[in-house]
């Protein structure tokens, strides 16, 4: 791929962006130095805890805030001097902000009329676009209702249709599902993903909910304290967290200290708790003898009878019933504790009783080396 082509396929490029609110020397630093490339037609998620800078980044792409340093390119073009309404970008907010005195169809038409990309449409085209967008979010039959006559989930669909109507190149979504209840949120996740795939519009989605991020995104950027911690596909982020923050923020994990015993053909071998050998990891940037921090997900550990050869001996300290899974707390001979998660099974004799001895096996490739 030549350089020009790769530029064209990037929807948004964030280059060394720093954001300080107020005085650049003394004001609060919201973003330290962000570099991110978001591809055309991608469902990209900015994920992180409250205050990490997600909304600030989104608002800068939209043009409501400006970087203190660095630049933002939209399809290769620096958009610093373009006001929000001249950017091929639209935003869906957490609060739907629909006009209460207008019907759903009127809300959409008004959104189109007031957008530069909608203004160029004639009346019949506009009516057609409104119909098309309401069909996309399955709200056609509610076209003549007022917002107060809709549920929260239905209002959010209308807000989505309104934002999509001008056919923006990039849609920014700022925690759009957080006001909905759990069941509705789950249903809307699938729907958002389908709509993104169907329209081919680049979605940049902001959330602090890791499950939302894992289930919908093509790629995720994990942010903490104004810095990008890791960018990758959901599997990369979950299976190979780069550091302690990412491992802890996404799902549950066990932190284990290990010593690298050898590195061979791109595989690192470790001695884990109580010197127990752990399965090798694909890892080249560690040296023999080094002490490293490892992350092992609870479902990558397996409890077996205490007599099992090559299993790490442990004691069952607690068992928690989670419905689909059982979660165990186990202790090792060196006093350390680990969390183990197993699928719940009907056969109760396969459960491990609290206070009993058991053995622990690690899945092949289950541990990730954490780099800071
Ligand atoms: P949340 O999930 O709670 O919305 P966030 O990750 O979106 O958080 P931002 O709203 O981007 O975080 O805020 C990042 C940092 O910048 C925070 O420390 C916040 O207090 C600060 N901040 C945000 N807006 C302003 C502002 N207008 N003036 C001063 N500081 C601000």
Automatic annotation (TrEMBL):
Its EC number is 7.6.2.11. Residues 12-250 form the ABC transporter domain. It comes from the Bacteria. SUPFAM superfamilies: MOP-like, P-loop containing nucleoside triphosphate hydrolases. InterPro entries: AAA+_ATPase, ABC_SmlMolc_Importer, ABC_transporter-like_ATP-bd, ABC_transporter-like_CS, Mo/tungstate-bd_C_term_dom, P-loop_NTPase, PotA-like, PotA_ATP-bd. GO terms for cellular component: ATP-binding cassette (ABC) transporter complex. Pfam families: ABC_tran, TOBE_2. Keywords: ATP-binding, Cell membrane, Membrane, Nucleotide-binding, Translocase, Transport. CDD domains: ABC_PotA_N. It catalyses: ATP + H2O + polyamine-[polyamine-binding protein]Side 1 = ADP + phosphate + polyamineSide 2 + [polyamine-binding protein]Side 1. GO terms for molecular function: ABC-type putrescine transporter activity; ATP binding; ATP hydrolysis activity. Belongs to the ABC transporter superfamily. Spermidine/putrescine importer (TC 3.A.1.11.1) family. PANTHER family: SPERMIDINE/PUTRESCINE IMPORT ATP-BINDING PROTEIN POTA, SPERMIDINE_PUTRESCINE IMPORT ATP-BINDING PROTEIN POTA. The complex is composed of two ATP-binding proteins (PotA), two transmembrane proteins (PotB and PotC) and a solute-binding protein (PotD). Part of the ABC transporter complex PotABCD involved in spermidine/putrescine import. Responsible for energy coupling to the transport system. This is Spermidine/putrescine import ATP-binding protein PotA. It comes from Pseudomonas vancouverensis. The gene is potA.
